[in-house]
């Protein structure tokens, strides 16, 4: 079962240089994933449900998409566990003047069906039919790997971003930024909870502001690390999305984004961490070439620790990319 959506890219989908925002692409990916997984989870008679986004695996932005191009987003269910659905999504950009098509993104998303009657009830997923037996085995391996990775990243949830007065340029405090958003009906699913794509778009917006404040040039999203959506965000809640730079390499910037939700009126409900992720940005010249970035100056012990952790992630991903690029002996 496959699903495809196409949409022309408009000026409000892009930055001033005409590049479509990473967040816009993430939102389209999530829309396609939510449709195919909700359709699949309701394909057998039984309790009706909406599939909620639980996780997005690391995704790279492989080539830029521009205003006037058409985004073709295709989604396919590639694995089902008892309570979750894995969806693979590919994004192609089409230049409708020349017909040229480029692969922009490949993403893997995990959805969990939640009952329409009781949003806290996770339903069982109808098993998908595999065309080859190996597909099920490979899917199970990916499922087990992400489960393990989720347990290891739980520690990040307690951290908060504090404002600092009169920060020096190139420090973490100088570029750290926050965005506060009231969750309205157009942000929400049939349950009245925020769509994962809406949250990712806002996260990308904050990360982009941090990157631009740091290097003061046009910037683009290069990749997003795996994102786990720990908790639902209800209509009427206020979300605070905070971003801070954690690491710079010669030409890239890593930004950590934290999403916290709270009920503004009911003070008995505590503020909670709904999601967190690392975005990597690249600085671009007016001609669209990647530029060296000012080096981040970590000041506190925590900032220095986060810088070293960011460097570890950077070196690991670089080694992986080079491993893919070079032919295996
Ligand atoms: N990534 C992938 N799968 C996940 C997951 C994650 N981050 N968290 C839970 N799951 C899967 C589990 O593996 C399980 O499937 P399995 O039984 O086949 O292994 C299934 O979800 C249910 O797990 P369970 O432990 O019963 O539920 P939970 O209490 O962990 O709740 C969610 C899971 C997804 C319902 C909950 O974390 C949630 O509500 N998240 C927010 C969803 C949302 O609102 N998304 C949009 C955010 S803006």
Automatic annotation (TrEMBL):
EC primary class: hydrolase
Every HotDog ACOT-type domain range: 1-117, 173-287
Record's compositionally biased regions (Basic and acidic residues): 302-312
Full protein name: palmitoyl-CoA hydrolase
Keywords, in A-Z order: Cytoplasm, Hydrolase, Lipid metabolism, Repeat, Serine esterase
One GO CC term on file: cytosol
One GO MF term attached to the UniProt entry: carboxylic ester hydrolase activity
Native source species: Sapajus apella (Brown-capped capuchin)
PANTHER family documented for this protein: ACYL COENZYME A THIOESTER HYDROLASE, CYTOSOLIC ACYL COENZYME A THIOESTER HYDROLASE
Active site: residue positions: 15, 204
Gene: ACOT7
Record-linked InterPro entries: Cytosol_ACT, HOTDOG_ACOT, HotDog_dom_sf, Thioestr_dom
Keyword rRNA-binding: no
Region spans: Disordered: 299-329
This enzyme's EC code(s): 3.1.2.2
Top-level taxon of origin: Eukaryota
Subcellular location: Cytoplasm
Gene Ontology process terms (BP): acyl-CoA metabolic process; fatty acid catabolic process
UniProt-listed Pfam families: 4HBT
